[in-house]
Amino acid sequence: MSDAKTVFVRTYGCQMNVYDSDRMTDALAPVGYRTTDNLDEADLVILNTCHIREKAAEKVYSEIGRIRKVKDARAGGDKPMTIAVAGCVAQAEGEEIINRAPAVDLVFGPQSYHRLPELLKRAGNGARVVETDFPTEDKFAALPAAEKAVMMKRGVTAFLTVQEGCDKFCTFCVVPYTRGAEISRSVAQVLDEARRLAEAGVREVTLLGQNVNAYHGEGPDGSDWGLGRLLFALAEIPGLDRLRYTTSHPRDMGDDLIAAHRDLDCLMPYLHLPVQAGSDRILGLMNRKHTGADYFRLVDRIRAARPDIALSGDFIVGFPSETEADFQATLDLVSEIGYASAFSFKYSPRPGTPGANLDDQVPEEVKSERLQRLQALINDQQRAFNLSKRGSEMDVLFEKPGRFDGQLGGRSPWLQAVHVEAPAQLLGEIRRVVIEDVGSNSLVGRLIADRPAVATPAEDASRVAADAGGVA
Ligand code: SAH
Ligand code: SF4
Ligand code: F3S
User: Of 181, 230, 302, 306, whose CB is crowded by the most CB atoms within 10 A?
Assistant: First the structure.
């Protein structure tokens, strides 16, 4: 029954959904599905959804409306279309989706991806299937690995989920409900997947988790390993030149992790460390379990360990009862920390979360006005950070063809996009570049031809020394 069929996946939300979408198509490959970029020809359409804010969730329904037209046009023909809703909206709304959107055949949550072939078979028999249990089996062990050829096509950077779910229950957030309790994959599983990625040509791996630094996977000796120890082991894998991880919670920045930032040259000097707000009263109401002062102390320790580290963050404005003074505390925190980039959002009350029931919701226009002020400050900081790189040398990993012929697009250690005139054979390579120009969202660099491609250990050491000397 496995004639070639096609699946089209549309991904919303965070990087974990991006990872999951690939794993879903990996799970479908053995039963005869190949991916397509053309929705109109797809046998199966999967919307991998996000529930984090109201707007994100609503987008899904309007998209279903559009896809339904394609499905209806094909009804009765020999190429029917199956529509599936996966991800966090699926988990949060389950049955409701089927009621609200009759065109949907299958709804399944993030903990059921490994069962996709079986769920499809059930949906194929005319049933409308909703699968949102949190099963106890190890989803990751049950998911098939991608074929090497497929992996190679996915490029030189990859995501790798090491931890999923969250036990923190911040009062604004749906993740503990949509992704379930925190689980960590075993060290062996993570190393195995990372090795396979490296063998397929991946140079940079970003470890993922909703709370990635709460990672506590079972090590080969049966003991619990933290994220720091895991990073030290990953750093040993030949070919993996760059490691990153996201998203981390300030409460879980353990000593081993800070040591990894100090000691591992391949751990990129860029850390996403959301704080959400600057006011201690709001942080308390958000159940973040730390104060602004705790965050400052932590950032000092991280910067002492890795002086060239740049920070990014997430902020919510207009959490219930937030006053102008509370908001000012957020602006003050941002000014004092200095971010290389940051995301900021208007608080969106989510059904089922404690924040949605708090009195004193902040009016929409106040939220909008605060968001504008915060974003202006963040934009200034981002511009200043980018400008600080003008004239400096850095390593760039070339990831894709550039905007113009003869150019390649790459990333700096600080995740900035860098455009460089370079031959196509440098795709997937890291080269030394000098930054000659700084645009609003990217840098322009020039190859430094007389530097070796891959630093020898001795040159590597001199580079560390140079970086520590403050290539601001
Ligand atoms: N685990 C991460 C956050 C994951 S959600 C952490 O602990 O920081 C990504 C971001 O979405 C959050 O950092 C927060 O800034 C934002 N967010 C989450 N829920 C939200 C809500 N109800 N309204 C607005 N923004 C929200
Ligand atoms: Fe959500 Fe992050 Fe808080 Fe967990 S730690 S509840 S994922 S914001
Ligand atoms: Fe969205 Fe779910 Fe990620 S709610 S942000 S897709 S964990």
Answer: 230
Identify the bridge partners of residue 310 per DSSP, sorted by sequence position.
270
Query: What is the widest separation between alpha-carbon atoms in the chain?
Result: 69
Least confident window among 375-389, 421-435, 444-458: 444-458
The model's confidence at residue 2, banded by pLDDT at 50, 70 and 90, is: very low
Backbone angles phi, psi at 25, to 5 degrees: -70, -30
For a ligand 2 pocket test, name from 88, 91, 170 the mutation site with the most ligand atoms within 8 angstroms of its C-beta: 170
β-strand pairing of 341-346 with 310-317: parallel
> Which tokens belong to 412?
């700096």
| d(CA 133, ligand 1 centre) in Å | 24
Spatial distance between the Cα atoms of 283 and 292, rounded to a whole number of angstroms: 8
pLDDT of residue 96: 94
Q: How far is the CA of 178 from the centre of ligand 1 (A)?
A: 13
DSSP per residue, 290-346: --HHHHHHHHHHHHHH-TT-EEEEEEEE--TT--HHHHHHHHHHHHHH--SEEEEEE
437-459 pLDDT tens trace: 998 889 999 999 756 555 444 44
Question: Other C-beta atoms within 10 Å of 36: how many?
Answer: 17
Q: If you compute the radius of gyration of the chain from its CA atoms, what whole number of angstroms results?
A: 23
Task: Give the burial string for 443-468 (b: 16+ CB within 10 Å, else e).
Answer: bbbebeeeeeeebeeeeeeebeeebe
Q: Within its chain, how far is the Cα of 239 from the centroid? A: 22
3-state SS class at 287: coil
Contact status, residue 438 vs residue 389, Cβ threshold 8 Å: yes
User: What is d(CA 171, CA 320) in angstroms, rounded to the nearest whole number?
Assistant: 11
Q: Which residue has a Cα nearest atom 6 of ligand 3? A: 50
